[in-house]
Amino acid sequence: MHTGRNRFEARLDQPSISAQSQEASRGAEPAQSPRLKKALRFRDLAAFYVISGLSVRWIATAAAAGPSSLIVWLIALLGFFLPLAGSVFELSSRYPQEGGLYVWARAAFGDFAGFLSAWMYWMSNLPYFAAVLYFGAASALYVTGSGHDRLAASPVYFMSFAAVWLGIITAVNIVGLGAGKWLNNVGSFGSWLPIVIFIALAAVVAHRFGSATHFFAPALAPRFSVRDALFWSTLFFAFAGCESGSFMGEEIDKPRQTIPRALVAGGAIIALGYIVGTVALLIALPARQISGVDGFMRGASDLCARLGVPWLAIVLALLIALNCIGGAASFLSSTSRLPFVAGIDHYLPPVFGRIHPRFRTPWVAIAVYGLAGILVAILGQAGTTVRGAYDVLVSMSIITYFLPYLVLFAAMARAQSRPPAPEAHRIPGGRPIALALAAIGFLSTAATIVFSVFPAPDDPHKLLSVAKVLLSTAALVIGGVAVFAVARWKRQESADRRQ
To answer: Quick one: which H or E segment has residue 455?
Structure first.
C-alpha cells in the first residue's frame, strides 16, 4: 500500500490527471489525448456550492422541530460545515487535480482508501437523484390546479419527470461544463430566491398580524433523545456538499484561488438561508403544522393567501422545482468525475477514463452515471416489489454517504505532516487550527453515523431496521472491496506479462 501511495505522490507532480488519460486504454487512445476544459469560474463555482448545499427541504425539516432547531443549525454550522469547508480549502489547494476526495484519500492513505471512498460516495448519491427529483415533481404540481391530486398519485408522472430531467442533465453535461454549468447557475436561483421571497413575506405578515411562533429562551433550548439524535444528524448533513466542487478540479479556472473565494461566498448564503429561512417559516406557521415533505410550500401558500398574492405561490413552486433540477445536475456533474479518475487508474474499466475529443468531457463516466440514476429513479416507482428494492438502495446510502467524510477529515489531519507545495494555501492559523478542524469534523461525522443507525421511535420493527441498514451497508462496502481487488489483480497480471 505504501508503494501505491508513493507512486501516486510522484504523479501529483505531473501537470494534470487529464494529461495522463491518454494512457487509460493502454495504447488505445491517440498519442495526444484531449485535456479537460476549464469552464468553471468564481461565479459558476459559488452558484454550484449554493445549489448543492442549500435546499428548502431541510428548512421545513428544521422548522417542524420548533425554535430549538435554530441552535442546532448553529451547532451544525460550527461542528460540521466550518471543519468541512476548511478541509476542502486546504486539501483542494494541496491537491488541485481532478477527482477531489479520491485524490485526497489516495494521497493520504493509498490506493485502496482512495477507491473505496469514491465508491461509497458515488454509490450513495444514486438514490439522491430520485429523491430530489421526486420532491421537485411534487413541488411542480402546485401549478397544475385541479390536476394536482390526480398527478400526485401517478407513478408514471414521477418516473417521467425524473427520467426526462436526468436524461437532459446527462446530455448537457456530456456537451460540456460550459453548457452544464448553466443548469447549476439557473438552479441556484431556485435555492436562494424562494427563501428571500419567503423571508420578505414573513416579515410583512409578522408586522401586520404577528408571528405564529414565539421565540422565547426556553423554546430555543435544544433537546436530545433518540428521536432528536436523528434530527440532529439531518441538520448536520444538510451542510454537506461543498467537497463535491473539487471533484472537477481541473475544470476550474485557477482552482487554488477560485475555490476559497467561492467557498466563502457560497457558504455565507447557505448558512443564512438555512437559519433565517427557518425563522421565516416558523413566523408563517406553528411547528405542529409543518411537515418535512410539504411544509415550505404550505407555509408559502398560507403567507401568499394572507397577503392577497396567491399567484406568488405558483412562482415559488416553480422555483423550488428548478432548485431540485439544479441540485440533481450539480451532483451528477461533479460525482461523475470520480469514476472518470478511477477509470484512468484502471480500478474501473479504462473506458471510464475517456475524454470526448470534441467536447473535452469525461463523457463515458457521465453517461453511465446518468443512466444509473435514471434506472434508480424508475425503480423508485415501478411497483411494490421493485419499490422494496429501491428502499434497500436508500438504506444502503445512509451510512455509506457519511463514511467518506471520515476519510476526508482523516486526510486533512494526515496532510499536516507533509509540507505543501509552494503555491498551495494553508488554512488560516496553520497546523494547530487544521488539526482542530479535522478532529471536530471527524468526531461530528462519527457521531452522526452512530445516530443514523438508530431506528425511528415509531418504527414497529426496530431490530430489523437496524439489521437492514448494517447488512446493506456491509454489502455495498464488500462490493467495493471486490471491485478493487479484481482490478488490482488484473493490473498486477498485466504488469507481469509486460516484464
So the answer is: none
pLDDT at residue 483 tops 70? yes
- Could you read off the pLDDT of 78-103 as tens digits, one per residue? 999 999 999 999 999 999 888 899 99
- Whole-model pTM: value is 0.83
47-68 pLDDT, tens per residue?
A: 889 988 888 888 888 888 889 9
**Whole-Å CA distances, 218 to 214, 276, 306:** 10, 19, 29
Cell of 461: 420493527
| Beta-ladder partners of 40 | 252
Domains of the chain (ranges, CATH numbers): 2-102+130-383 (1.20.1740.10)
Among all chains, which residue has been given the C-alpha cell 484519500?
105
Rounded Cα–Cα distance for residues 231 and 445 (Å): 14
The residues, ordered by sequence, that sit 6+ positions from 474 with a Cβ below 8 Å of its Cβ are: none
Name the grid cell of 91.
486539501
Q: Which residues of 437-467 are buried (b: 16+ CB within 10 A; e: fewer)?
A: bbebbbebbebbbebbebbeeeeeeeeebee
Closest CA to 281 of 294, 300, 268: 300
